[in-house]
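Protocol step 4 of 6: structure prediction from sequence.
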Amino acid sequence: MTIVRAMLSRRTLLGAALAVAALPRAAASQESRDPASQEPTDMKIRMIFNGRTMTATLYDNSSARDFFSMLPLDLKIEDYAHNEKIAYLPRKLTEEGSGPFANEKPYDLCYFMPWGNLAMFYADYHHPGLIRLGRFDEGSEALHVRGEFPLRIEPI
């Protein structure tokens, strides 16, 4: 009985030591999967409207992955306020783990949670309720063209 307890204690101790050693690695992999991550991914998209093409790189967060899974999409892009264009998605995106972000910049691609629409900013902005999905890489000057147009969004 004493030998069994000693073996059990050693196994328990060894298991605990291995778990503690693996913990930092698991935490590091979780950091890269932060739901509000602003890290670029290989998820790239093309947006086409009014004979113009824009490209964007999506970030590593659950909302961006959900958006990417919906592509391709045919929507309508329209002006909103003085600093953005919007397009309504066919359904709301997951908001799991979303959180506030800072360093808002023109040419961010965001999701506006209350309305369930894409928000494509071409000027300074700050608004609660946004999840940043990514950032435009090329062709973002198209956002400055005023009007309402059919919009095609597809993966690259």
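Step 5 (inspection) to follow. Confidence is low (pLDDT under 50) at residues 12-33.
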